[in-house]
Design goal:
This protein is of the alpha/beta class and about 180 residues long. It has four helices and six strands.
Length: about 180
């Protein structure tokens, strides 16, 4: 699938670089994707975006300022507050894309353990962007089967993925093929 467009949007006076994947028809929901911390879009986010497009969603994949192809010097500055600003800027940008239903936005991130609890799309936090209709988070994208947190922090015999698969964490879990737009 080669429906990827290079895009840029402003955040904090710099340009964030991204890829836009368009689904057929419209208006459609849009999934905004980024890795946590220092990950970049080159680290397999395109494969996830393509799966969302096949399910009928538009997808915007982006790099934070100071990472990947985005602007910002010095490079590799890890600043969670700035990354949250980048998420909000990406969400604003995605809402303005032709064919995107601005009321149906989903944030999808990986790696950052705090993103799901108090990041830009969760709970009653001041970081919650208005209009984000969903939040998805993955602790790791195909990296290691080992848990990222000590086992004592979870009930015996259960993993976070196990809870997600059984819908115990805020709704039914589903694969992109089950999430028809």
């Amino acid at each position: 699938m080669n429906n990827r467009e290079n895009v840029q949007f402003a955040s904090g006076g710099l340009k964030c670089s991204g890829w836009l994947y368009r689904a057929r028809g419209g208006p459609r929901p849009c999934v905004v994707l980024a890795h946590g911390f220092g990950g970049t879009r080159e680290m397999r986010l395109g494969a996830y975006a393509e799966a969302f497009v096949e399910a009928g969603y538009h997808a915007l994949v982006f790099d934070y300022r100071h990472f990947g192809d985005s602007e910002g010097e010095p490079r590799q500055i890890l600043d969670i507050k700035r990354q949250h600003e980048d998420w909000r800027a990406a969400l604003r940008f995605a809402r303005g894309i032709g064919g995107v239903d601005p009321e149906k936005m989903i944030l999808w991130g990986t790696s950052s353990p705090e993103r799901g609890r108090n990041g830009p799309g969760s709970g009653p936090s001041p970081e919650r962007p208005p209009g984000a209709g969903g939040l998805a988070r993955s602790d790791a994208c195909g990296a290691s089967p080992k848990p990222l947190l000590p086992a004592r922090r979870r009930p015996a015999g259960r993993s976070r993925g196990h809870d997600d698969a059984r819908g115990r964490r805020g709704g039914e879990a589903a694969l992109p093929g089950k999430l028809r737009a």
